[in-house]
C-alpha cells in the first residue's frame, strides 16, 4: 500500500531524510519510531503531498504523491503532529469543514460527527469555539476529525502527544477497530514505545534520517537482544538527547523558505 | 463546489465573529475621512476642486476594500502559523477550488467592509450625485476586492511566516494606497507620478467609483472596468499558481 524507495530530502545542507526505503502492506499497522528530529514528520509530509522529495520514489496505492496529488489525497487521512484546527470556529464547524472537504455526505457526516464527538467527550462543547479549548481537548478534536471519513491509509503523526491515558486508550481502540473492520492501512509515529509494541504489526526505527531497523516488534527485540521495545529503541539510537536538532532544522528551513516559498 | 462554498462561509464567519476587529478596522478610514476630509476641505475648495469630502469618499472606500482584501489574502500566513492551512492542503479537493473559496470569501468580506465605510461616508455628508448608479459602485468595489485578494494570496503563498508582514505593509500596501489617486485628483500630475499612478490597479478602481458616484473620471469608466477585470484575472491566476505550489 505504501512503498518508499531511496527517499531523500535535504533542506539546504541539512539532510533530513537520507536514503530511506520501506514498505507497508495493505491492512498493516506500521509504527515509525525515532528520536526528535530523526525525519519522521518530514517523511510523512512527503507521503502526504505536503513536501516534494529531493530524490527517491514514493508510491501510495501505486500512485506517486508528487505527481498525482489529487488522487493520492483521496486515499489518505492524517492527524497532524501540530495543531491544524481553526480556533475561530466551533468544534462542530471544524468537523463540518473536514466532512465537506472529504466529500462525506451530509447525513452521514452529521451522524459520524455526533458519534465521534461523543466518543471523545466533546459533544457538550461542540458549539464552543476551539480557541477556548484546552490542549488535550484540541488534540481529541483533531483525532475525532481524522476519523470522520474512512481513508484507505491513515497517517497518525504522534497522535497521543498530550493525551491522558483514557483518551489514548480510546484512540488505539478506535485505530484497531478501523484497521480490522475496514482494512485501513495505518502508519503512525509515537514516542511511547509500549504503544507501538501493543498496536503495531511492524515497526521501523529511523535515526538521523536513516532507517536503522525494521521488522515486527518481536524481531526488533530479538535482533537487539532487548527485553522491551524501549530498550531496543535505545540500543539502536543511543541515549543522547537531541531535541535541538528538530528546532534548528525547522528554523533553517523556515529561513531558507521565507522568500523562496514554493519555488523549489 | 461545496468546498468553495464552505471555505467562503468560513471567511464570513471569521469576519462576523471578530467584532473588535470589525470596529477597529473602521478606525483608519474614519480618521482619514474626518481629518483629511474636513481638514483639507477649505484648501481644496479654494483651488476650485469642489467639496473634498465628496472627492475623497470613494478613495476612502477604495482604501478600505484594498486593506481588507489584501489582508484576507495574507490570512494564509495566519492559517499557516496556526496550522489550519495544512488541513485544507491535504484534502482531496483541487487546490484551485480551495484558493477560489478563500479568495471569494476574502473579497466578500472586503466588500462588506467597504459598504460599512460607505455608510460612514454618507453620515459624514457624502452624497452620490446619482443614486441609481450606486449598484455600479458596488461592482467596482467587488473588482477591487478580487484584484487585491488575488494579490494577497499570491504574496501570502510566497512567504513562510509573519516576519515579512511589515515589509508587505510598507512597500506594497501603503504605496498602492497613496499612489492611487485616493487622496488627490489624477489630472495634471507631474509626469513621473502620473506614470506611477497609471500602473497602480487601485487608481482604476477608485476612478471607476468616482465615475459612477460623482460623474467625474480621469481614465473613463469603461477603461477602469476593463483594466480591473484584466488585472483581477491575472492576479488570481498568479495567486492560484503560487498557492498550488505551497509546501509546508
What string gives the helices and strands of chain A in order? EEEHEHEHHHEHEHEEHHH
* CATH homology superfamily name of the largest domain in chain A: P-loop containing nucleotide triphosphate hydrolases
Tell me the Rg of chain A in angstroms.
Answer: 18 Å
Query: How helix-rich are the residues of chain A, as a percent range?
Result: 40-55%
CATH fold node name of the largest domain in chain A: Rossmann fold
Shape of chain B: globular
* Portion in helices of chain B: over 70%
Number of helices of chain B: 11
Briefly, what CATH class of the largest domain in chain A? Alpha Beta
Poorly predicted residue ranges of chain B: none
H-E string of chain B: HHHHHHHHHHH
Major sheet summary line of chain A = 6 strands, mixed
**What is the CATH architecture descriptor of the largest domain in chain A?**
3-Layer(aba) Sandwich
How many helices of chain A? The count is 10
User: Main sheet of chain A: which strands, in order across?
Assistant: 5-6-7-3-8-9
Determine the structural class of chain A based on helices, strands and strand pairing. Answer: alpha/beta
- Compute the number of structural domains of chain A: 2
Summing up helix and strand content along with how strands pair, one would put the structural category of chain B as: mainly alpha
Tell me what you see in this structure.
The complex is a heterodimer of chains A (264) and B (248). Chain A is an alpha/beta fold. Chain A has 2 domains: 1-75 and 152-162 and 178-258, Rossmann fold (3-Layer(aba) Sandwich), CATH 3.40.50; 81-150, no CATH class. Chain A is built from 10 helices and 9 strands. The two termini of chain A are 28 Å apart. With 248 residues, chain B is mainly alpha-helical. Chain B has one domain (2-244). Chain B has 11 helices and no strands. The mean pLDDT of chain B is 92. Chains A and B meet through helix 3 and helix 10 of A and helix 1 and helix 5 of B.
Keywords for this entry:
heterodimer, A: 264 residues, alpha/beta, Rossmann fold, 2 domains, 3-stranded antiparallel sheet, 10 helices, disordered C terminus, B: globular
